[in-house]
Amino acid sequence: MYVEMYVDKRGKNGERKKLDKEIPVSNISDENLYCLNGRVPLKKAIPFGLQHVLAMFVSNLAPVLIVCSAAFIQGTNEHLTPAEITEILQCAMFAAGLGTIMQLYPV
Fold it and tell me: For the whole prediction, is pTM greater than 0.90?
């Protein structure tokens, strides 16, 4: 469902002006789901946040697990040990955390 948001002020030709979705919103309501900086009610924010965390874990860890399970140690016919796979997973999570910090605080 897409909601068009308009300001009460009229433009030069009498048409309504669209609301800038990047303006910080101070009130909390369900319509703020469609605004970039909108504040969502807590009973909706918690499930959305949990869904986001789970999706990020799956999208970050699944490719690493697939590659590690198919990888062989060079020169041998042995797979990676569980300790090595765990270390690679930790590095992937650390890199994802660094990427998140870089997005939150751009240079």
Answer: no
